[in-house]
Amino acid sequence: MAEQIIAGFTVDVSADGYMTNPSQWNKEIAIEMAKELNTELGEKHFAVLEFLRKVQMEGQQLTIRKVGTSGIVDIKEFYQLFPGGPLKNASKIAGIPKPTSCV
Amino acid sequence: MSEITEKYPLKKVLIICAKGNLEDVLAALVMTNGAVMEGIEAKLFFTFFGLDGITKNRMNSLHTATVGNPAMRMPGGLPFPSLLGILPGVEAGVSAMMKSQINKLDIPTVTEFLEMITAGGGEVFACKLACDMFKLKKEDLWEEVSGIITVGQFYELAEGHGTQIIFV
Predict the structure, then answer these.
(1) Of A30, A103, B128, B141, which residue is the least packed, with the fewest Cβ within 10 Å?
(2) A103 domain residue, yes or no
């Protein structure tokens, strides 16, 4: 496990840059991580991130379908908010481990 | 000699679904949706019996074969006798059971899966030859099918570096 400084905070990250301790996460880290993925975060983004964190902390497996039925965004919007791999990128920005589901 | 270290990530996949069993159609859908999720451009092409997967009145009642399927098992793991598979209702029962198991894993229905793929920018096509053979027209197919195309048009879609074609 490695440490990385993001937006001035020292956080634990995995080899592919996912935070391994979700409690170290905050909004500044999210904004900084999103920048690296060419995404500027708005209110809707944060609503999705909070949802992902909630599902993850409940110990449930994250899927695109769950996000689509969350009532926050539909799947099309999810792809627009986090282009080029929404579940992966959003999980990274949300400070949770890399998703392991196939759907 | 210098070592080649540069990686060439997959950029596009063309997936062909040629079978109409529930598990074959799902395999094609999982692979296509998985590509879309990874940000890989994906085109899904249905041909022959695979067309059931995008034919309006069949796509949500696909079955799994109970005859001629040696991997088939009873719920406890015992071998599934082929002769049982021919009884009326057994195939429907087994298929219903498969569907409930699949649903528990949060795997969507065929239509919902296709919607997820197109929502993410993936495209779905039907094979012209197979449509002619089964006498299917565009209006018989799921609304969001991008077109009925020939094999030549299919290969044209494969242009560009980092493309792979996968046959299910």
Answers:
(1) B128
(2) no
Give the nearest chain A residue to B26 (CA atoms): A103
What is the CB neighbour count within 10 angstroms for residue A43? Answer: 7
End-to-end CA distance of chain B: 39
Per the CB < 8 Å rule, is B39 touching A84? yes
Question: Strands, E, within A7-96: which ranges?
Answer: 9-13
Which tens digit of pLDDT belongs to each residue from A45-92? 999 999 999 999 999 989 999 999 999 999 999 999 999 899 999 999
> Is there a contact between B106 and A103 if contact means CB atoms under 8 Å apart?
yes
Mark B135-148 as b/e (b = at least 16 C-beta within 10 Å): ebeeebbbeebeeb
Domain B12-60+109-167 has CATH 3.40.1260.10: yes
Residue A74's domain comprises 2-93
Q: Spell out which chain B residues touch chain A, with contact meaning CB-CB distance below 8 angstroms.
A: 30, 33-34, 37-39, 105-108, 112, 115-116, 119-121
Both tokens of B100, joined, read: 């409930």
Domain count, chain A: 1
Q: Where in chain B is the domain with CATH 3.40.1260.10?
A: 12-60+109-167
Give the pLDDT mean for B34-43.
96
Is A101 a domain residue?
no
Counting Cα atoms < 13 Å in the Cβ hemisphere of B67 gives 10
Annotated catalytic residue A102? yes
Say if A37 falls within a structural domain: yes
Nearest-angstrom CA–CA distance, B32 and B52: 17
Burial A4-41 (b: 16+ CB within 10 A, else e): eebeeeebebeeeebbeeeeebeeebbbbbbeeeebeb
Determine the pLDDT at residue B70: 86
